[in-house]
Structures are given as C-alpha cells and as structure tokens.
Amino acid sequence: MFLFYAVHYPQPEKEELLIQSMQQFGELIKKQPGIIFVNPSPFRDTEKGALIGLAIWESQEAFEASWPVLVKDVPSDEWEVKPREVHMLNTVV
C-alpha cells in the first residue's frame, strides 16, 4: 500500500475555500483506479492551524498513474501562509 498525505497551512480568511477545494479534490481522487481510502473532509490540527488530506492507494504505481489527472485540480497554494508539506510513504515489506 501507498500513503499520500498533505499538510496545508491556510490563511485564516481562506480556510473555508481551501476546505471546499480539498473536498472537491478528494471526490476526484475517489474516482481513480487503485484508490483504497480518501478522507471525505480534511482533518484539522488546531494547534498548528493545519488541514490534512489523506489518501491510501493500492500501490505507488497506482498513485503515479493517476497523478497526471489529479495535478490539474490540486488545491491552490495561494490560500496558504506557508508551503504545504507532502508526504508519500510505502508499506514496509
């Protein structure tokens, strides 16, 4: 399995726009082959003021095959106070 998650740091006045965009992005992810799970709504880390999106894929190859479709609708980084963190992890065999 392959885990992809992104940590977003929204501008306070743009948080709702970013949440909506992340939810739409999640809907697009759900339509991709090889997806196992995507969170329906972002997780919120109130201490850091962050929003977290999470998706689990069958494999890194399934994720990479879908990325050209997904990259067209990635949430805007203009709504964030600092660059998002992206993490990609494979299961340990």
Average pLDDT number:
94
CATH architecture tag: 2-Layer Sandwich
* Helix amount: 25-40%
Return the CATH topology: Alpha-Beta Plaits
The computed structural class is alpha+beta
What is the total tally of β strands?
5
Radius of gyration: 13 Å
> Residue ranges: pLDDT <50 for 5 or more in a row?
none
What count of structural domains? 1
What characterizes the major β-sheet? 5 strands, antiparallel
CA distance, first residue to last residue? 10 Å
Helix tally?
Answer: 2
Determine and state the CATH class.
Alpha Beta
Percent of residues in β-strands: 25-35%
SSE string:
EHEEEHE
Characterize the overall form.
globular
General description of the model:
By secondary structure, the chain is α+β, with helices and mostly antiparallel strands. The chain has one domain (2-90): Alpha-Beta Plaits (2-Layer Sandwich). The protein has two helices and five strands, in the order E-H-E-E-E-H-E. Strands 1, 2, 3, 4 and 5 form a five-stranded antiparallel beta sheet that branches. A hairpin with a 4-residue loop joins strand 3 and strand 4. It starts with a strand and ends with a strand. The mean pLDDT is 94.
Give the key terms:
93 residues, Alpha-Beta Plaits, alpha+beta, 2 helices, 5-stranded antiparallel β-sheet
Secondary-structure blueprint:
Blueprint: E1 2-8, H1 15-30, E2 35-38, E3 43-45, E4 50-57, H2 60-70, E5 85-90
Antiparallel strand pairs: 1-4, 1-5, 2-4, 3-4
